[in-house]
Amino acid sequence: MAKSSMNPKAPKPKRGIPSGKSPLDNQRHEKFAQLVAKGKPDMQAYQTAYECSIEVANSNACRLRGNDGVRRRIKHLQQLVERKTVLSMVERREFLARVVRSNLATFDPSVDGDLIQEITEEDTPTGKKKKLKLPGKRECIMADAQLAGDLVEKVQMDGQVLHVVLTEGRRAELMEKRRAALARANVIEITDASQSQYQSNE
Question: How many CA atoms lie within 13 A of 61 on its CB side?
Fold first, then answer.
């Protein structure tokens, strides 16, 4: 007698419902989904896609939004938009690391121009000078520590792991340790100034 399998079979997807990854067959549905994914209100998206009156759009937009295929298509398109516009965790930390590792003596605006926070001009006896303000290294170190989870400690209590936000004193202690580690690695030189500045002749 054949043994029955103990592993339950995975549920099969419903037939006839698009996954959302491909354009919808109905061109009006596809246009509606694209407009909604870009942030247009449902009623306006419906009115644009169907070229109808506000009254008709108001009564039908909600129904179309609830369509499984349209709903999945909107979700997929929104995810694509998010990937293009939202920074990933790695991108955020890489930017912070670039600021922290920046060297004012060799800073090149043509290469690291995206690090510049503000540009101002000053009149000096020798002519005009541009002042470039960069994000503060201290702030970037703290921001990176927060992203890395260094400012939250795990405390085990009754078999459960609790995440506790650190006090200002503990944060200062971790900050000092991180600064010391970076200094030993000869990566940066941190001053008391909250912002780094670089000047060049125009």
Answer: 23
Mean pLDDT score across all residues of the chain: 75
Phi and psi (nearest 5°) for 67?
A: -65, 130
Residue 31: how many other CB atoms lie within 10 Å: 17
Beta-carbon count within 10 A of 63 CB: 11
Q: What is the DSSP letter of 29?
A: H
The confidence score (pLDDT) of residue 196 equals 43
Locate the domains of the chain by residue range: 27-85, 89-201
Place 116 in a pLDDT band, splitting at 50, 70 and 90: confident
34 closest CA partner among 62, 75, 84: 75
* Residues pairing with 120 in the sheet: 131
| Measured torsion, CA atoms of residues 117, 119, 125, 126, in degrees rounded to the nearest 10 | 100
pTM: 0.42
CA distances (Å), origin 178, targets 125, 147, 184, 187:
41, 14, 10, 12
191 pLDDT band, cuts 50/70/90, is very low
Strands (E), the chain: 118-124, 127-134, 152-157, 160-165, 196-201
